[in-house]
Amino acid sequence: MTALELRDVGKIYGSDENRVVALEHATLSVADDEMLALLGPSGSGKTTLLSIAGGLLSPTSGRVEVGGQDISAFNASQLNRFRRESVGFVFQQVNLVPFLTARENLMVVDEISGARSGRASAGRADQLLGELGLAERGENMPNELSGGERQRVAVGRALMNEPRLVLIDEPTSALDTQLGNQVMELIRQEIKERGTAAVIVTHDTRMIHYCDRTVSIVDGVLRDDAGASAAH
């Protein structure tokens, strides 16, 4: 099954002389257990595409399907529910809640969605932290964690709701090569074990070999780079 399908999607900001075409006739398909790298320079439309795929932005034109649901016609309430239940986000700025522990930063996903409560939520959080090599860090606050540890907590938070699709924006931008490799290896392991789809926005060509396929975007136009990445 296809986890994500974009069909002739466009996004325009502004009008007249202030008109900016951020995405133009974008067509893209991502399979259920596929890791896709979206590669492009700053201002190329990467984050716009990611935001549309996750229901954070509405397209100006075209159709967006996630897990067979056409989200392009969803109202605000439907989009909120869709984001809570079907998508996991890892933003470039990790955005952990500073006054919550690592475990609580994962559990807050369940509090918002109502998916689990109490012991079940804590158990799920501890399972993910253990898989991510953070079993001993659950009680630490974000400011007590390294950059790589905070990034891994963010990955765990994105997986907490067992999403069909995980959208990751520049996961290695603040990390050195060694930490970047560790984070990407963990992302790949978690995604593949769960059969979850992932779109990873990056400009870091050192990391694209962790993905199954690479798609480039320049000035809002997508190009499939067949064979550009060699997955582990």
Q: Keywords, please?
A:
232 residues; alpha/beta; six-stranded mixed beta sheet; 33% helix
Write the layout of secondary structure elements.
Layout: E1 2-13, E2 20-31, E3 35-39, H1 46-53, E4 61-66, E5 69-70, H2 76-86, E6 87-90, H3 102-113, H4 118-131, H5 147-159, E7 165-169, H6 177-194, E8 197-202, E9 213-218, E10 221-225
Parallel strand pairs: 3-8, 3-9, 6-7, 7-8
Antiparallel strand pairs: 1-2, 1-4, 4-5, 9-10
Helix pairs in contact: 3-4, 3-5, 5-6
Give a brief outline of the structure.
Helices cover 33% and strands 27% of the residues. It has helices spanning 46-53, 76-86, 102-113, 118-131, 147-159, 177-194; strands at residues 2-13, 20-31, 35-39, 61-66, 69-70, 87-90, 165-169, 197-202, 213-218, 221-225.
